[in-house]
Amino acid sequence: MRKRIVEYVLPVQDEQSLLARIEQELRWYHNTHYAHLTAFLGVPHDNAQVRAQLEQIIGVFRDRKDSQKPDPNFKILSPVQPDASFVDLLTRLDCRLPKLMLLPHLTDHDNFSGLADSLRSTAALLRRYIIDFRFCITAERLPQTLPALLSELRKLSESPEDRALLSRFPVIEVPFTAGGDDSAQLANALAELWSRWPQLNDSVNLSRGGFVKHFYALKELWHLARIMNQEQSVEADIAKLRTGYGVEAAVEARIAAFDQAFLERYASLGQYNEWRHSSNSVVLEFDLDSIADTYECQSPVFVDNRWILERNSLELATDKGRKS
């Protein structure tokens, strides 16, 4: 499965460049086998131009895509308290599969002041509609704002009605620009966040990228290398993951320092188990098969309490089983 995430921030002033970009994404979608396209439509402010472009983008993708391809997954990042008429518009557009998803968006610009109250009031509005929604929280000033974030999330765990808001855990984004030069401190903050709220495993699939999604990939790559007895190769695998982001050299260096802090402080089975979370309804971006692809092997097979990922090892294990 080839996955691609594109993002549009509305309004776009140059209509021609907008249409040209959509055509470019459609060409990739048409020409790529087993493709999965997700389009995030950012709506920082709601007005008539934004609504018209929102309808236009969704309409062009739906009308111009190959008939054999499913619709892209559309995720709409809206202000945390969208207007009811805006939600009405989305419900009218939400007429095909896969369903649209509304992501009311909050940031730490105000140190997460009133975050719990904002989630409660917005959820009360959206529950009046048949629409798929999940909150999105961007922490641009982590680790400074971590205590406030943890405090606000804790408020939502105090009553059954509020806990229902956390049953679909918010998407938490930490951009690669966050954390300044202290990558170790940022790694500590994310490790604490994940330890307090391992439900992050449920929402990471909806991340557009950044340190939270990268942290998930790190812990899963490390754990897979451990059960395969290939821990000596994990640093090379992480480096390949890092370079695949295509970011600037300075940003990649910051990520590399973050990775080193992770491996030095948190690469342990006890820590990994602390971050685990069981869910019956989540399909994760970095599932076992996709991670195994980094080892240029087929899907793993469990033989005699061991994961067998290499064809030669599997043949040997099968031969031993037949002889016994």
Account of the 3D structure:
The chain is α/β, with parallel strands linked by helices and 324 residues long. It has two domains: 2-209, Aldolase class I (TIM Barrel); 210-319. Helix content is 50%, strand content 14%. The protein contains 14 helices and nine strands. The chain has helices at 15-31, 48-64, 84-93, 115-126, 146-155, 160-167, 183-196, 200-203, 211-227, 234-243, 249-266, 269-274, 288-292, 311-323; strands spanning 2-9, 35-42, 73-79, 101-107, 132-133, 136-138, 171-173, 301-303, 306-308. Strands 1, 2, 3, 4, 5, 6 and 7 form a seven-stranded parallel beta sheet that branches. It has a two-stranded antiparallel sheet with strand order 8-9. Helix 4 links the parallel strand 4 and strand 5. Helix 9 (211-227) runs antiparallel to helix 10. The longest helix has 18 residues, at 249-266. It is globular and about 50 Å long. The relative contact order is 0.07.
